[in-house]
Amino acid sequence: MGTLRSPRTTHVRARGNTDRVTCDTGDACEPRGRGGAGRGLAAGAAPSVPALPLGSMEAARDGKGGSGPNGHAEGPAAERGRGRLRGCRGFLRRNALVLLTVSGVAAGVALGTAVRGADLSPAQVAYLAFPGELLLRMLRMVILPLVVCSLVSGAASLDTRSLGRLGGIAVAYFLGTTLLASGLAVALGFIIRPGAGATGLNAPSLTGAVPTSKETVDSFLDLIRNLFPANLVAAAFQTYATDYRMLSRNTTSGNVTWEKVPVGTEVEGMNILGLVLFALVLGVALKKLGQEGEDLIRFFNSFNEATMVVVSWIMWYVPIGIMFLIGSKIVEMEDIVVLVTSLGKYIFASILGHVIHGGIILPLIYFASTRQNPYRFLLGLITPFATAFATCSSSATLPSMIKCIEENNGVDKRISRFILPIGATVNMDGAAIFQCMATVFIAQLNNVDLNAGQIFTILVTATASSVGAAGIPAGGVLTIAIILEAIGLPTNDLSLILAVDWIVDRTTTVVNVEGDALGAGILNYLNEKEKKDKEQELKEVNVEAVANSKSEAETSPLDWLSTPCFIHH
Known about the structure:
Elements: E1 10-15, E2 18-23, H1 54-61, H2 76-94, H3 96-116, H4 122-128, H5 130-141, H6 143-157, H7 160-192, H8 216-227, H9 232-235, E3 238-250, E4 256-268, H10 272-289, H11 294-315, H12 318-332, H13 336-370, H14 374-379, H15 382-391, H16 394-407, H17 413-426, H18 429-445, H19 452-467, H20 475-487, H21 494-554, H22 564-568
Antiparallel strand pairs: 1-2, 3-4
Helix pairs in contact: 3-12, 3-15, 4-12, 5-12, 6-10, 6-11, 6-17, 7-13, 7-18, 7-19, 7-21, 12-15, 13-18, 13-21, 15-16, 15-21, 16-17, 16-21, 17-21, 18-19, 18-20, 18-21, 19-20, 20-21
């Protein structure tokens, strides 16, 4: 009588193009569907397993069981379709904020175009802009804690050597790119000549209030004074500015002369320069304290993280605020035809300078420094760019820029929260282009041929004054007067610049924040490279130390004690 064997369970596998049947007993079974007897079966063994239907084999191959709606097994096409659907859902989930922000810009243009013909009153336009005003107020609300806590945390987390090295590279990058931007604007101004042949510039719709001009020396002294605020609490909402009073003096001949005397005043606006310097010094001081300063460092770190959580909540309101900001600004436009026909060349030249600098020069600098794709880096910053375009404020864009550059581009928090607040204050490439182009435009408008000395003065003054340009809407217009005074041009024509500032200021702000972001990316790359070099150097030192220890063990002076000669004696 034959030996009884337990029933064998069969499993189906798919490998290559062969449907293979394997057995739990470990016996190899003949593949089905290709003919031939089972090579691993003895005579009289259990009958072979019948061939499975093709659909079942494909379902087993894909690791999926079950059947489709018609009772047939689902094939690879259905699985690929579900995979694409899951991929689309994941893409939408990851890029929801970016897509909503871009949609908000498009919806704002459509809203403003549609409502423009309704002839709204100024009060109604203000109501339309109310949701956008809320966005600006929320963003400005978090600027103070974000700047102070970020800089204190960043300065305290970096050692003195790294802080000095990164700070030096950042200053060189900021000054270098700003000088390049100024040179580009002057060159484009001479090539395009936006002020030559301009007509209709005395139209009432193009006039506006001319900002009070200041002496160049007083402007730079104000910049230095604001670096050292007398009251830190007041620096959160006030900044120092020089004003002038006219005093009469009687001369010996009986004539009365008037003298302009500078008088210091406090004007509304955050003194961000003073806060930045104080935060950096405080962070370095806490680092020097060692263990005693750890508690305060942890406090600023926690405060900073909590602020970033609030920023992440605000970012979901950005698409709505952007839509109403852009829509209300389009409604406020008085006569776009007059603007384009009279100042079209100036607008074109300014925006072209921003496109060349932001689209070519800055990416080339990033690529030359990191050998990485700059446009892929910029693709992760669409939301901050849209925010900059809508708000025209580098400071208001700072919260979203820090959040996106860390989450989307993987920049180290110590780098981003150290460099970006400084860049939002002192790095103004777009403003330098705007100021130089406006200066060349006004010179050509007054038929003034600029000589080499005046061009050099424009470059240096624009580069220096852009450092003190406030990161607020229309902040660059106030610094143009400094350049005009420096080269002896009238400031009355600044009203023409103010008429179209709302257009040019948008691309100006985008280029400003782009320069900050790429600078942070370059510093992050250099910092990571330095860390890798140190790790490699440490490994080489360890290997060399091990080799030296082995060599010393082999040639130890005590080895002669164990020689046969010594033992014999």
